[in-house]
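Hi R.,

As promised on Friday, here is the backbone we talked about, encoded as structure tokens. Could you run it through your design pipeline when you get a chance and send me back a sequence?
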């Protein structure tokens, strides 16, 4: 499923930024909040919400790599 794949990819990228020591805690927090909402969407089978929230987290994850 796209939802599951998007979530796995987003969490993987977020974990990568954390292990590399990037100091962007505000961006991490925003991304984690959106990914948590995506997980809820996945859990209640609202896959469009899940995908949208996972994609919305992507810019915050990317910004934390700067």
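Update: got your reply. Pasting your designed sequence below so it's all in one thread:
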């Amino acid at each position: 499923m796209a939802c599951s794949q998007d979530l796995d990819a987003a969490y993987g990228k977020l974990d990568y930024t954390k292990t590399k020591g990037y100091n962007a805690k505000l961006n991490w927090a925003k991304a984690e909040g959106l990914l948590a909402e995506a997980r809820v969407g996945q859990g209640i089978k609202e896959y469009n919400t899940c995908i949208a929230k996972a994609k919305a987290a992507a810019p915050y994850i990317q910004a934390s790599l700067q």
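One thing I noticed while checking it: The chain has one domain: 2-63.

Thanks again,
M.
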